[in-house]
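pls read this protein:
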Amino acid sequence: MKRKPDILWVLVIIFGLGVVTTGYTQSLWERQSGAPENLIQQQP
């Protein structure tokens, strides 16, 4: 029963790192290519 909070914290840390990494990558993308227009404007 003592291991459950440890597993929870590991999952929280991994999820947090994923969110931070995604945000950082998106900011790099936007700075590098000036917001990819084909992803933003998908009009039929």
Notes: The chain has a mean pLDDT of 79. Residues 4 and 13 are 14 Å apart (CA to CA). The radius of gyration is 17 Å.
